[in-house]
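@channel sequence for tomorrow's demo:
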Amino acid sequence: MAALVEPREWTWADALSSKGKAAPLIVVLGRLAGPGNLGTILRSAEAFGADAVLSLPGTVSAWNPKAVRASAGSVFRLPVLTPGRRRIASAACAWLA
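structure tokens (generated this afternoon):
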């Protein structure tokens, strides 16, 4: 049996909904090249209660087959945001204002 699924498009609202906690826990990844390492970080982030993962430009795709396998399904349950450089800059400016 095989299935073709489209990954969910996560939003900042998904990442910032801290589920009753004082502040959301967001793991930030920058220039991570190993897909197995990314999958392991996703799995660990979910286990430790992270609300989201922010994957900066230059980081391997969370949908790389090795990353999906290493995440043990966490990639489907944990919001993984992959904004572009402009989006990051505008969000940072808005947050600092």
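heads up for whoever presents: The radius of gyration is 14 Å.
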